[in-house]
Request: fold
Amino acid sequence: LEQRGPTMNGLNHEENRLLLRPREAARQLGISERTLWGLREIPRIRVSKRGVRYFVDDLRRWIEANRSSGQ
Reply:
C-alpha cells in the first residue's frame, strides 16, 4: 500500500490500522470507491447495517495476486 510520508515504523496512519473504510481502502489502491465495490474478490466485513471495512492484509494479498510480472 502506498506510503504518504514517514511516520512510526515507516507506515502511514491508515496502514497502522487493521480495518479501512471503503474511501481509505480505495485511496490506498489508487482506484475509485465504485471500482473497489465491484471487486468482489476483495473480502469485506460488515460492521453495521450500512458500513463495511476492508482488512489491510486482504488488500495486500489482492495486490500480490494481481501483480503483473512486468515482462
